[in-house]
Design brief:
Shape of chain C: globular
Strand content of chain C: under 5%
Radius of gyration of chain C: 19 Å
Oligomer: heterotrimer
Structural class of chain A: alpha/beta
Chains: A alpha/beta, B mainly alpha, C mainly alpha
Number of helices of chain C: 11
Strand order of the largest sheet of chain A: 6-7-8-3-9-10
Order of helices and strands of chain A: HEEEHEEHEHHHHEHEHEEHH
Shape of chain A: globular
Distance between the termini of chain C: 43 Å
Largest sheet of chain C: 2 strands, antiparallel
Number of strands of chain C: 2
Order of helices and strands of chain C: HHHHEEHHHHHHH
Number of helices of chain A: 11
Helix content of chain A: 40-55%
Helix content of chain C: over 70%
Bound molecules: adenosine-5'-diphosphate, magnesium ion
Strand order of the largest sheet of chain C: 1-2
Distance between the termini of chain A: 35 Å
Number of strands of chain A: 10
């Protein structure tokens, strides 16, 4: 206990984010049950587990959308448990949603800009009246948005409202929105679900490239091919509990994991 | 692109401004100018309402409270504090902005339908109190004899007393301009983008660092303050304030103007206000013919239903679709030329 | 019986009658919200339509129909009326946002009120039944037979509603739709039909309320509005879309109003009921009786 606090307090042992004994109960079910986990800077960690094992709920607790009953979340040595979602994202944790969310009537470009603007410090008053500084920030934002659009291949659709995109494109857009503030940690909830093989491959390459460039990822994914390919480390949840953790090779062989998935 | 086309938005605004300033000079009768004042008032009222309802998506059915209480403040406090027109207006505006802040913090805890109906409950309470607190408001007997605005002209001993509708008209114009400029500035900037984000998906908005409450409050407070100022103007214009100034029928009118014109669009709300205020009077042929209010209301109700069924984005949405189509067909023609 | 007690019982009875009125109206609102997620601002006007239907049926030129048959007829008339409104005006917008619903139903409300105004004028119409003036003595308390009928039928209706929603196939389908509309579409429940039936039941409840309780009031074109507002307050107090919670809340409102009007101030009774509503909204936004999804 005292050791834990020490680690958390100075945060100097390298863990970018540390989840300590996190517990979230819904009526009749403990969705996340005393989970401990760490992600180090520059890592690509996958979070896997059968449906309903609490992965999304864990994401929601980390990002402040759900209030956990017990445990703490420490990000860069700072306790962010129970902080508001908008504050947490501004500290450098971006996320996507399992059921893809974009702003349907905003254009593709505006979706990206609105995801960056709160990160560019400025006050409300300035933001109302186009002060020169805002124009500069806006130019920078557009530049960065165009780069990302180029990367995900949606440049031609930048003026279209997001509701006109097909599912896979919306997923890419949401992914780009998570990246635009250049976050320290990106949480992706099933980035490869529901899209075609070509796009799965594209998504995989993007994640790998960004990770190589130093971005830290925590990814929930069901596609085991992708998970085994990209992960440095895998954490396995079942019924809200962490049942295994290790390298892809170790997890592949782990009897507890096999049991959780196939109910041996 | 020709210079004219590039300048068109500016030209439109200038032409509109000239029209607003010059039009009342064409009419000597009070009837026409009353309609124009009415139109301007609905523009201010509806734009303030649309800031919340159309942009941030928080439809409060309690907006008349800001208007009515703003009017009562001028009626009851004005004489006691000895404030002039500007003082009265600023007092109502700031207190109503404060009320909006307090009410917002309280009511934004609940959302959507509960918010709409909660604010509706609040405005009913306000009206009941205005109606029954005889000692304070005189109840249905109204507060009468509110002073008309007076302006001392500097370096002379002349005071200008505002009496004629035409004078009131020009007194109102600055508030209209202020409202339009503020509306435009807020909604076409980064704030406007955040407003839309909050309207479309609050959860997603928080996930990109936007705090929904902040933007909801911003729109609500700005709108409340402007409507408070408008209420103060109303009190000093008609010189009587009755409980009916906190009327639910105002809410209905706002919904008609904003949703028929086009929620979340400056052009739509302006069109809505003008059509709503001028058309029925035109049908009455300058007062010669009177349409019973019940028939007017039936027409409004039917228009509302038809618009919802067949033009869900209002008149503005319809115009936009048509101009889009026109632009596209022109592009094709140009392409063929080359 | 001591006078004090008699007065108390009188207020209690008034409160229960008022509660029955609110509850019948609220139940319909709550059903519609629960099943199709629509807030019907024209719901009180269904009651008003029922009131005028009652007025016409009581004053037919060729002689009176027995009151029980009139009650059934009014119930049916308003049920069919509600179905027509749903099919013609609301069904196309059911999958739109609640803002669109609010504007559409407010439009309907304005039209209904003003058409009634044009046809019937603002004069309040009295709709006495043979039972409004028949007084019986019960425990030393004199009360009209109409009130006994109201309370008796209200209780029966609520029991029937329980049974219907919990036990019948149709009721179960309604609950299923209220809990997960998309899933129902997938498993082949005819959602538009369920929506239509919900409107019929909701309209029927409003019609029944009108046939029973309008005789104690008088019928005016604008009487629906305040009923809609009270009903909506009760719906939210009971927890949006929770049928039973909203019925309890309606009775609470009726009783509070009656006692406050009787003992404190008649003029401010609505201030208290809406104040109570807002208090509940702040303190328990999920409703008085806990959170649950669906009916
Ligand atoms: N908002 C909620 N209310 C009640 N139960 C929930 C809620 N969200 C998730 N659950 C339950 O929590 C458990 C974990 O769900 P989830 O985190 O979505 O799993 P996963 O993402 O691993 O598939 C499931 O049993 C689910 O039914
Ligand atoms: Mg999940």
């Amino acid at each position: 206990m005292s050791e834990q606090r020490l680690i958390a307090d100075n945060g100097s042992n390298g863990a970018l984010i540390e989840v300590q004994g996190l517990t979230k109960r819904f009526i009749g079910v403990t969705a996340v049950d005393c989970v401990d986990m760490k992600v180090y800077s520059g890592e690509l960690v996958s979070l896997i587990g059968p449906n309903g094992s609490g992965k999304t709920t864990l994401f929601n607790c980390i990002t402040g959308f759900l209030r956990s009953e017990e445990g703490r979340v420490v990000f860069r040595g700072r306790d962010i448990t129970h902080e508001r979602p908008d504050k947490i994202v501004l500290q450098g944790i971006s996320r996507t949603f399992q059921n893809v969310r974009v702003f349907p009537s905003l254009s593709v470009l505006d979706n990206l800009l609105v995801s960056l603007q709160q990160h560019q410090e400025e006050d409300l008053w300035r933001r109302t009246f186009h002060a020169p500084k805002i124009q500069r920030l806006e130019r920078e934002a557009v530049e960065r948005a165009l780069q990302l659009l180029e990367m995900i291949g949606l440049t031609d659709l930048r003026e279209e409202p997001a509701h006109k995109l097909v599912f896979g494109q919306r997923k890419l857009l949401e992914f780009a929105c998570a990246l635009i503030p250049d976050p320290d940690l990106v949480l992706l909830d099933e980035p490869a679900a529901g899209v075609g093989t070509a796009m799965v491959e594209q998504m995989k390459q993007h994640i790998l490239e960004l990770n190589r460039a130093g971005m830290t990822f925590l990814v929930v994914e069901h596609n085991m091919g992708v998970v085994m390919d990209i992960s440095d480390r895998i954490v396995v949840l079942d019924h809200g509990q962490k049942i295994a953790e290790g390298s892809p090779e170790a997890i592949r062989e782990d009897p507890r994991v096999l049991e959780a998935y196939f109910g041996k | 692109m020709t210079a004219l086309a590039r300048a068109r938005p500016w030209l439109l605004w200038v032409a509109g401004g000239v029209l607003v300033l010059a039009l009342p000079l064409q009419y000597s009768g009070g009837y026409a100018i009353n309609i124009m004042i009415n139109t301007l008032m609905w523009i201010v009222f509806a734009l303030s309402f649309d800031l919340s309802a159309g942009h941030v998506g928080t439809v409060s059915l309690g907006h008349p409270a800001f208007f009515g209480i703003g009017a009562y403040l001028t009626a009851l406090l004005g004489p006691r504090l000895g404030l002039g027109y500007l003082g009265n207006t600023l007092l109502s505006a700031s207190l109503m902005a404060l009320l909006a802040l307090v009410a917002g913090v309280a009511f934004f805890r609940v959302r959507e339908v509960s918010f709409a109906i909660g604010t509706l409950g609040a405005v009913i309470i306000a009206q009941l109190i205005a109606n029954n607190a005889y000692d304070l408001t005189g109840g249905p007997l109204c507060v009468k004899g509110i002073a008309r605005p007076e302006f001392a002209i500097p370096f002379t001993d002349v005071t200008l007393k505002v009496i004629h509708p035409l004078q009131y008209y020009y007194l109102l114009v600055p508030l209209v301009v202020f409202t339009i400029v503020l509306y435009k500035a807020m909604t076409s900037s980064r704030i406007g983008r955040a407003f839309i984000a909050v309207r479309e998906d609050e959860v997603r908005a928080s996930a990109v660092g936007i705090r929904p409450l902040r933007y909801k409050l911003l729109a609500f407070v700005v709108g409340g303050g402007i409507i408070g100022a408008l209420g103060s103007f109303q009190a000093q214009y008609v010189t009587v304030v009755c409980p009916s100034e906190i009327a639910l029928s105002y809410t209905l009118n706002l919904l008609i103007i904003v949703f028929v014109g086009g929620a979340g669009s400056l052009r739509g709300v302006l069109l809505g206000s003008v059509i709503f205020s001028v058309l029925p009077r035109l049908l009455e042929q300058g007062g010669a013919l009177s349409i019973p209010p019940a028939y007017q209301q039936v027409a409004y109700g039917l228009i509302l239903i038809l618009v919802v069924l067949f033009m869900p984005d209002g008149i503005d949405g319809q115009i936009r679709r048509m101009t889009d189509k026109w632009h596209r067909s022109r592009e094709v023609e140009v392409g063929e030329d080359v | 019986m001591p006078l004090q007690l008699e007065i108390f019982l009188e207020h209690l009875l008034n409160g229960l009658t008022l509660g029955a009125l609110y509850a019948l109206v609220t139940a319909g609102l709550s059903l519609i919200f629960g099943v199709v997620r629509l807030v019907n601002f024209a719901h009180g006007d269904f009651f008003m339509v029922g009131g005028y239907a009652l007025f016409i049926l009581l004053n037919l030129p060729w002689g009176a129909i027995p009151y029980p048959i009139i009650v059934i007829l009014v119930t049916l008339i308003v049920a069919v009326f509600a179905m027509l409104i749903e099919r013609l005006m609301l069904q196309p917008v059911l999958d739109k946002s609640w803002r669109i619903h609010a504007v559409a139903t407010l439009g309907i409300s304005i039209v209904l009120q003003n058409v009634a105004l044009i046809i019937f004028t603002t004069d309040p119409k009295q709709v006495p039944t043979p039972f409004t003036t028949k007084i019986v003595s019960l425990l030393g308390l004199r009360l009209s037979v109409q009130r006994i009928i109201i309370l008796g039928i209200a209780v029966l209706v609520f029991l029937a509603l329980q049974w219907f929603v919990k036990r019948t196939k149709l009721g179960k389908a309604m609950r299923a739709v209220s809990q997960n509309r998309d899933m129902c579409q997938v498993v082949g429940i005819d959602v538009p039909r369920i929506a239509l039936i919900t409107f019929a039941i909701s309209g029927g409840l409003a019609g029944l309320a009108a046939a029973l309780i309008a005789p104690l009031l008088s019928v005016t074109p604008t009487m629906g509005l305040s009923l809609t507002l009270k009903g909506l307050a009760a719906v939210i107090m009971g927890g949006l879309g929770q049928l039973n919670g909203s019925i309890y809340a309606a009775f609470i409102l009726g009783l509070v109003e009656s006692f406050f009007a009787g003992y404190v101030s008649f003029a401010f009774k609505d201030v208290v009921s809406f104040g109570l509503f807002i208090l509940v909204l702040f303190l328990r936004p999920q409703g008085l009786f806990g959170r649950r999804i669906g009916l």
